[in-house]
Amino acid sequence: MSDHSSEAHSHGSVKSYLVGFIWSAILTGIPFWMVMTETFDKGPTYIAIVLFAVVQIFVHLKYFLHLNFSQQGKLDTYSFMFSAVVIVMVVGLSVWIIYASNAMMM
Predict the structure, then answer these.
(1) Residue 71: which H helix or E strand, with range?
(2) How far, in Å, CA of 102 to CA of 105, rounded?
(3) Is 86 exposed, middle or buried (CB count within 10 Å of its CB: 0-12, 13-18, 19+)?
(4) Rounded to two decimals, what is the model's pTM?
(5) Which of 38, 40, 36 has the alpha carbon at shortest distance from 28?
(6) Residue range 38-64, pLDDT digits in tens
(7) How many CB atoms are located within 10 Å of the residue 50 CB?
(8) What does the angle CA 92 – CA 78 – CA 13 come to, to the nearest 5 degrees?
(9) Are 46 and 100 in contact (CB under 8 A)?
(10) What is the Cα–Cα distance from 91 to 99, expressed in whole angstroms?
């Protein structure tokens, strides 16, 4: 039988969570500052927001969901990646179908 105890997988330490929290706060604060101060034009601000959001996704995956490519964490990481691909495909294809249906009705 498989071992489903809480000791089967290593969960993050307090240090890991604090590092993730600090990175998340920084990656949220910089775009917030860019929008509130209007220091940059709209184009670079939009690009920066998207880039900081993508980086923040990876920070959350590493520090909070503990996904990694070690021998023990490979299966979890691959399962997550497969789920993410399926969700992106379902949402993307749904939007495509709705757009195409709308275009045919006009």
Answers:
(1) none
(2) 5
(3) exposed
(4) 0.69
(5) 36
(6) 999 999 999 999 999 999 999 998 898
(7) 11
(8) 115
(9) no
(10) 12
Encoded amino acid at 28, one letter: T
Q: What is the dihedral of CA 13, 14, 17, 18, to 10 degrees?
A: -140
Tokens representing 44 are: 């670079």
Q: 55 is written with which tokens? A: 């980086």
Tokens of 15: 């240090």
**Spatial distance between the Cα atoms of 62 and 56, rounded to a whole number of angstroms:** 10
* Alpha-helical regions (H) of the chain: 14-37, 42-63, 74-105
Within a 13 Å sphere around the CA of 23, how many CA atoms are in the beta-carbon half? 19
Show the CA angle centred on residue 67, arms to residues 7 and 81, nearest 5°.
Answer: 125
Q: Which of 32, 91, 101, 24 is nearest to 55 (CA)?
A: 24
